[in-house]
Amino acid sequence: MEALEFYSRGSRFMLNFVYTRICQKVQAVSHRWTYQEIPSPKNVVVLGGSYSGVHLAQRLTETLPTGYRAVLVERNSHFNHLFVFPRFGVVPGMEQGAFIPYGGIATTAPRGIFQHIQDSAVEITPTQVQLASGKSIDYEYLAVATGSWQPAPAKLTSTEKADACAEMRASQHRIQNSSRIAVIGGGPVGVQVATDIKSYFPQKDVTLIHSRHQLLPNFGPRLHEFALQALKKLQVNTVLGQRPKTVVDGVDDLVRSSTQETLAFQNGRREVFDLVIRCTGQRPNSGILAHLYPSAVCKSTGQILVRPTLQIDAGAGSPVNPHLFALGDVAKTGAPRMERAARSQADVVTSNILSMINGQSPSAIYRPVDEEGVIKLTLGKYDWAMYFKEESGRELMVNGTSKSEDLDVRRAWINLGAKYDPST
Ligand SMILES: Cc1cc2nc3c(=O)[nH]c(=O)nc-3n(C[C@H](O)[C@H](O)[C@H](O)COP(=O)(O)OP(=O)(O)OC[C@H]3O[C@@H](n4cnc5c(N)ncnc54)[C@H](O)[C@@H]3O)c2cc1C
């Protein structure tokens, strides 16, 4: 019964999504015939080319009127498909598929409507975005989709594909060369990394350490229970309610070599690991607004404050340029930090920018929907669970097995208009 409800709600949500996308694509065909390239169009700048920024840029290239163009600023040479990072950072040989060329995202867009710049934005002024290269771009509208920062393996520091692949290969080698591995952080990334290591390399001793008593704290207790059982089945040691500290080399006699790390637990216990992988410490990339609108950055979460229209909000008495928007993980929208939510927000931003260009007030409102929070959590090589929680607190979950070790990475390439060729 539960599976039936889960899949019928999921299908309704996906059908609605597919129907909306088909309508958008049909409108894009007529838009292609009406849009005219002009010498100096006004810029609608999108900062950040990941799940939210790319969808927004695509929607803008399908809808902006003559006189405007979309400019996507992204520091990475390739789209980083984060969903596969936990597995591809453990299992050798698949890493190239995680980095997808941007070339296909606007191939059907009219000439002159899209510009893609590989650079880092370092500052926003009332009229311009300043880039690390020293260049600047004027903007008429600006959408901040800079997401969040997290240490590897969740995200990487390299901005070029070859270097990012080398970073992933180094992570695989470290895992291969270690017998006792600790993974710190029991969120989705930590759980996936720990279960993948143990299921691909069963001879290794793997310990997952989490500061709270509930794994996956952004979800409900049922997913925690399910993940805990899966960890037990795989013989991953799970330590909950502990925030261990690293014992500095040389101070502790348990440290046996410079590559090993000793963790000291609150109860006084100390353990030496060959490798400690940290899957914690997500921080919103909102610093770019810190000078222009410091009060628009939430003091507790570091996210950018937004109105329901996704226009940036600096609080009462601090007017912000209404042409500034924020979306995705960097924005405090109340939504789950997940891809589907980011895409819905991109639709809202597109609609509001178009209204404003047409001299109307922005009227599209973003409201989180339960199904945007659906997570598909892998629990080792084959097992997975799909889960979401309703606003009422009711939890729905299904589980199963899959033979797709590359986590259907080809689908992500197709969605970005790219031909699957990991070497590109
Ligand atoms: C390892 C991992 C696995 C995940 N798995 C899933 C999953 O299975 N399903 C799901 O729905 N969600 C998943 N998520 C969550 C999902 O990936 C996020 O919700 C999503 O990435 C948010 O997208 P975003 O565009 O808002 O931000 P981000 O993905 O964080 O992207 C921000 C982009 O902005 C760029 N950027 C930042 N600052 C600058 C700057 N100053 N100048 C230029 N560019 C800049 C970055 O390079 C990056 O490309 C996962 C997340 C992680 C980390």
UniProtKB/TrEMBL annotation:
One of its GO terms (molecular function) is flavin adenine dinucleotide binding. Residues 43-342 form the FAD/NAD(P)-binding domain. One of its GO terms (cellular component) is cytoplasm. It holds the Pfam family Pyr_redox_2. This is FAD/NAD(P)-binding domain-containing protein. It comes from Uncinocarpus reesii (strain UAMH 1704).
